[in-house]
Amino acid sequence: MKSYFMIGMLALASCAGNGKKGADTVQMDSGKTDTAYASKTNTPAQNMEYCFVHTDGTAAQDTTAVHLVINANKVSGEMNWLPKEKDRRKGTLSGTLDGDKINAVWSFMQEGQTDTMTVAFKLSSQQLAQKPFTVDAKNGRQQLDNKADYTIIYNMDNCDKFRK
Q: Where on the tree of life does the source sit, at the highest rank (predicted)?
């Protein structure tokens, strides 16, 4: 009977956690945990890797996947727009983090042509939000809609889509 009591006490102690309140725990690639997400501030953790996915279309058949690596205020990564029946855009991200806002340049390949576009994200503890694009009436090209809010929502995902 004493051994069952001891096992029960050990199980309860292991579930008790580290005693920190008000912080989410984030599993890092290195296997260490980081409590840098404050629940009240939603500030992104530094020196982390994040992956997010957004689907849209009539049957959620079009996918955009974003992989971010944050080191201090520098952001790098990949962004892949993968529509079901249209031309794909696959490329890299390079930018900066200021608070929870990311401003970056997306360098991508589409139809054999290389192009760039400015992108803007807002990173929180469990999701990524992006400002949408608009079409420039003068040249017919897509560009960041600076007047818009962060309305395209990405959900956190594992990084399997980006591992080779």
A: Bacteria
